[in-house]
Design a protein that fits this description.
Order of helices and strands: EHHEEHEEHHH
Largest sheet: 3 strands, antiparallel
Number of strands: 5
Distance between the termini: 34 Å
Number of domains: 1
């Protein structure tokens, strides 16, 4: 489970920027209201929902994302194709993001990729600026 759309997009952004750089052009992240954003990613998630591979769970003011049984099966097929070195890197990224938590992942992204924060409504809050 990934807790919240913002956490999901920031983790995916870091994945694209730091691990699967060849996907950067496809997902075309732009500076947006809460930092880097991809409309392509948004559409991709909607398509995965329509196919029954992920489900959204409303959790108060947050939307969580969970793989369905079909999604887990498909993920297992894809994971089997990924080289062990990349799997380890991806696992470490996921673990690090979870340990950082919501605020930590935002600070990481905002400090490491400031060019994606120019339109952010929360930059001052995240970076401790007045």
């Amino acid at each position: 489970m990934i807790k919240g759309w913002l956490m999901f997009t920031k983790q995916f952004f870091v994945f694209v920027k730091e691990i699967k750089k060849d996907l950067n052009e496809y997902f075309h992240f732009i500076p947006y209201d809460y930092g880097p954003y991809s409309f392509v990613l948004e559409e991709t998630v909607k398509n995965l929902q329509k196919k029954g591979l992920i489900s959204k769970v409303e959790n108060g003011d947050r939307t969580d994302f969970i793989l369905t049984k079909s999604g887990c099966d498909r993920a297992d097929e894809i994971i089997a194709l990924i080289p062990e070195k990349e799997k380890k890197i991806m696992g470490n990224l996921r673990k690090d993001a979870t340990q950082l938590g919501y605020s930590g992942i935002l600070r990481y992204v905002y400090s490491r990729y400031p060019e994606y924060t120019t339109a952010s409504k929360i930059k001052g809050l995240i970076m401790g600026e007045s």
